[in-house]
Write a structure and sequence with these properties.
Domain HhH-GPD: 36-187
Shape: elongated
CATH class of the largest domain: Mainly Alpha
InterPro entries: A/G_AdeGlyc_MutY, DNA_glycosylase, Endonuclease-III-like_CS2, HhH-GPD_domain, HhH_base_excis_C, HhH_motif, MIG/MutY, MutY_C
Protein name: Adenine DNA glycosylase
Family: Belongs to the Nth/MutY family.
Oligomer: single chain
Distance between the termini: 64 Å
Structural class: alpha+beta
Bound molecules: iron/sulfur cluster
CATH topology of the largest domain: Endonuclease III, domain 1
EC number: 3.2.2.31
CATH superfamily of the largest domain: Hypothetical protein, domain 2
Order of helices and strands: HHHHHHHHHHHHHEEEHEEEEHH
């Protein structure tokens, strides 16, 4: 295989998207953008990126940010462990590296939430180090370029693909080369549907294109079936406020706020009333109105939510809970995307 870098880089310089973290690729900017883009499309992530940086312009600011504000800045992006790890890493960077990310691939890799790909992206793009940054886009491009039908999810195969990526990398342009591969995967060698081979700078070299196999590559192990979990959600209302409870500090949606709920069960109105009473809540005279069903998909779990809303007499919030009005719901408490149907209902109809 002829070296792909010259054609790839020419294409990149002519076609790359202008993105804020590319225009000012400081280590912090590249780090933040890569973490945001792990589970989020570029167009969806951009407003979050701008807002996050305006609020927390550098690593010391991130390290010192109060947890609720941090969650609020991430609200809507999901996968909150990403932002918690960002902050954990920022604290380490402040104590060990004076608030600046280290120009060292292995030191980056040792930080919470930074895997091989992110370490490679920061090291090559911001520090110009000749290291790989292999994400799903790059694996797809190389599986097709070499017409290689092996499973890219196999760690050994991924290592071999990474070695191939490095055979083509010009050491003086490591960051541009890595970005060019990702950009080609995002814009031309597309993941869903037919790749745009007519526009591809590697079209004449590509073995899958010649063999007509591009659409079947890359090969991946099929994802595991998700576990379906019924969830009973209860919107307990009083005088324009809703009762929120904080989730445990560890596990799914750790530390975030939610309506009162019970997982792994679909409760009747009578069973729900008994559970609310056990929480210490006075539901005298309350009418249980069914909520619309809602579904939320996590990586391995699917929540099938149903439940009730009811109005209760004025009373203090039970332990671990707070009463939140409309303003606090919008400005202070982070309700994860799993509850977006019920949050909308609260904000538009109930509060
Ligand atoms: S020619 Fe087509 S399949 Fe091959 S790398 Fe380019 S876009 Fe992908």
């Amino acid at each position: 295989m002829e070296n792909i870098a010259p054609a790839l880089l020419d294409w990149f310089y002519a076609n790359r998207r202008i993105l804020p973290f590319r225009e000012d690729p400081t280590p912090y900017h590249v780090w933040l953008s890569e973490i945001m883009l792990q589970q989020t499309r570029v167009s969806a992530a951009l407003p979050y990126y701008e807002r996050f940086l305006a609020a927390l312009p550098d690593i010391p600011a991130l390290a010192g940010c109060e947890e609720e504000k941090l969650h609020k800045l991430w609200e809507g992006l999901g996968y909150y462990s990403r932002v918690r790890n960002l902050q954990k890493a920022a604290k380490i960077v402040c104590t060990q590296y004076g608030g600046q990310l280290p120009a060292d691939y292995n030191a980056l890799l040792a930080l919470p939430g930074i895997g091989e790909y992110t370490a490679g992206a920061i090291a090559s793009i911001s520090f110009g180090l000749p290291v790989p940054a292999v994400d799903g886009n790059v694996l797809r491009v190389f599986a097709r370029l070499y017409n290689d039908p092996r499973l890219v999810t196999d760690p050994q195969v991924k290592r071999e693909f990474t070695a191939r990526v490095m055979e083509h990398q010009p050491p003086a342009k490591a960051g541009d080369y890595n970005q060019a591969l990702m950009e080609l995967g995002a814009l031309v060698c597309l993941p869903n549907g037919a790749p745009l081979c007519e526009q591809c700078p590697l079209g004449t070299l590509c073995r899958a294109r010649a063999a007509g196999t591009a659409l079947s590559l890359p090969q991946k192990t099929p994802p595991k079936a998700r576990r379906i979990t019924p969830v009973t959600v209860v919107l307990v209302l009083n005088e324009g406020r809703v009762l929120l409870q904080q989730r445990p500090a560890k596990g799914l949606l750790a530390g975030l706020w939610q309506p009162v709920l019970w997982e792994d069960t679909t409760l009747t109105a009578a069973e729900t009333a008994a559970r609310l009473a056990a929480l210490g809540l006075d539901c005298t005279g309350a009418h249980f109105t069914p909520l619309p069903a809602a579904k939320h998909i996590f990586t391995h779990i699917e929540w099938h939510q149903s439940g009730y809303f009811l109005t209760v007499p004025e009373q203090p919030a039970p332990a671990g809970c707070v009463w939140a009005g409309k303003e606090q719901l919008e400005a202070a408490y982070t309700l994860p995307g799993a509850f977006k149907v019920y949050k909308k209902l609260l904000l538009t109809k109930l509060l």
